[in-house]
Amino acid sequence: MKQLEERIRHDGTVKPGNVLKVDAFLNHQCDVALFDAMGAEWARLFAGRQIDKILTIEASGIGIACLAARHFGDVPVVFAKKTQSINLDGDQYVSSIYSFTKQREYPVIVAKRFLHAGDHVLLIDDFLAKGNALHGLIDICQHAGAKVEGIGIAIEKGFQEGGRKLREEGYDLKSLAIVEGMDPETGEIRFAESE
């Protein structure tokens, strides 16, 4: 998606350690018009698929998932929580994931009343690097008996193995921008050809 790639080039910052900082528009300050365009693009890419729920992880995935839902007939958005709280009651699906950006393992939790056997789910997230977060969501869907119809990612780090592994596992993964390389010295960001 050229619009997203241009925004990454203009407002993204490359940091040492393969970190791409896009907080000016994606995961701290939100560009709602861009999110809406991203949702329209995912709707185009997954046209013909039955999608009756969108599943993401708090916090950065929520905004893009909510705007994407508008393009799938206003389907509900369910987000996995990263911490147990008194607001999480009843039976739950829990998976454990390792966060590249936070450098720690944490649980992801979805109340069973929001995800059911037979649900057709689109997973949405802001970043894909090693695929740990997505594997946690897939694990939750498998325990629920829900079918993962596709995975929509805003920015994939194509030089890390997450996307390749998920595609090899048979998942229909559509990333709107695939970063093939980054240079923290020059700030250069190279993209793969768009789908």
Automatic annotation (TrEMBL):
One of its GO terms (biological process) is XMP salvage. 5-phospho-alpha-D-ribose 1-diphosphate binds at residues 129-133. CDD domains: PRTases_typeI. Xanthine binds at residues 20, 27, 157. The keyword Metal-binding does not apply. It holds the Pfam family Pribosyltran. Keywords: Cytoplasm, Glycosyltransferase, Purine salvage, Transferase. It is found in: Cytoplasm. GO terms for cellular component: cytoplasm. GO terms for molecular function: xanthine phosphoribosyltransferase activity. It catalyses: XMP + diphosphate = xanthine + 5-phospho-alpha-D-ribose 1-diphosphate. Residues 47-157 form the Phosphoribosyltransferase domain. It comes from the Bacteria. PANTHER family: HYPOXANTHINE/GUANINE PHOSPHORIBOSYLTRANSFERASE, XANTHINE PHOSPHORIBOSYLTRANSFERASE. Homodimer. NCBIfam families: PRK09219.1, XPRTase. This is Xanthine phosphoribosyltransferase. It comes from Bifidobacterium actinocoloniiforme DSM 22766. The gene is xpt.
